[in-house]
Design a protein that fits this description.
It is built from 16 helices and 5 strands. By secondary structure, the protein is an alpha/beta fold. Strands 2-3-1-4-5 form a 5-stranded mixed beta sheet, sandwiched between helices.
Length: 381
Amino acid sequence: MSQQTDKIEKDVNASTANKLLVICIDRDNDVGEKAGIITPVIGRDACIEAAQRLALEDPEDADSNSIFAAIKTYEDLISKGYQVEVITVAGVKNRGVQADEKILAETKKVLEEFSANGAVIVSDGEDDESVIPVIQNVLPVVSVQRVVMKVSRSVEYSYAVFGKYLKMLAYDSKYSKFFLGVPGILLLIGGVATVFGYTAEIFAVLVSILGGAFLIRAFDIDRIWSNWSKPTPMGFIRMFTMVAGILLILSSVPSGVSSVDPELIKSDMQLITIITDKVIVGQFIAGVLPILWIGMGSIFAGTLLSNWMGEIPRQISDILRLIVLASLYPTVIQFTNIMIYDEPSLTLIPSLLGGLAVTLVSATILFKKYRKHKDQEMVSD
C-alpha cells in the first residue's frame, strides 16, 4: 500500500489540485443491491459503515475492499495536509449508459457540497475505470488507484475456485441453461434416435441445434429477445412492430415472385439462368421492394417509438435510420429500372446524390438539436 500512496502523492504533486475528492466507484451497484445502501456515500464514517455492511452481506465481494482502500487513501492525503473528502458512488446492476449517467449525477451532487478541483479514483478493475472519462467531464482526475486482492496461490485454493465455478455452472440458471441445457437436449435426442434406429439422420439435427445455440449465445439473441418482450409499453411496441416487420419482409418474397412476367420463365430454364437474367431479377426486386421497405420501416419505427417513450438517448440514430431507409428507396427503384428497361447506369447518380444530400442535411440538423439540448441541460445543471 505504501507504493500506492507514494504514487498518489506524486500524481497529486504533479497537478495543481489542492482540494481533492477520493472517489470509490462501484459501477454495478453491489453496495446498493447487496447491502441496500443509497449512494452517494459521503464521508469517512459513512464509507466505513457501507464497506462493513457490504462485507457482512458478501465477504467475497471486492468492492468492500475498494471502499476501505479509498478510506486509507483519504487518511494518507489528510496526513499530508491536503483538503480531502472521500465518497462512494454507484451505477446500476446492468452497467451500461444508465450506470455512467447515475455516477456522473452523484459526483455532481457531491461537488455542490464539496467544491473539489481534483479527483483520485479508486476501483477494483477495468470495468469501474471505464467511468473515468465521464467523471473527467466535471472534475480533473489527478490519480487512479486500482485495488488488487492478494489471494493464496496454493493448489487447494485453486481447486476451491474451480469447484466454485463448476457449482455456478450447475446451479446458476444464467449459465446452466447453456452449459447443461444444450448438451442435455443433444444427448436426449441422440439417445432416443439411436433406440429407434435413426442414428444417421439425427446427426444433422444435432449439428443444427448446436449451431443454433452457438449463434443465439454469440449474438446475444436470447438477451435481445428478453429485453424486447418485457411486459412494458415499450416492450409490447417493439414486439408488435418486430413481428409485423418480419411478416411483411417474408410476404415481400411471394410479391416479388408474382411480379415477374411468366412469359420470361420457360419450363426448361435452369435456376442459374433465371437468377442471372437481369430482367427477371429486376422485376423480382421491383415487386419485393415496397413491402420489404414497409417491413423494415415498421421495425425501425417501433424501435424509435419505444426509445422515445422510454426517454432513451438513441433517438437520433433511430430517426436517421428511417431517413436513410426512405432516401435509399428511389435509388433501388432506379436500379430495378436499369435492369428491366436497359436504362443508362448514369441515371442512378441523381437519386444517389439526392439521397446522400437528404441524409447529410438531416444528420446535421439532428446533431445540432441534440447539442443544443445537451448544452441547455448542462446550463440547467
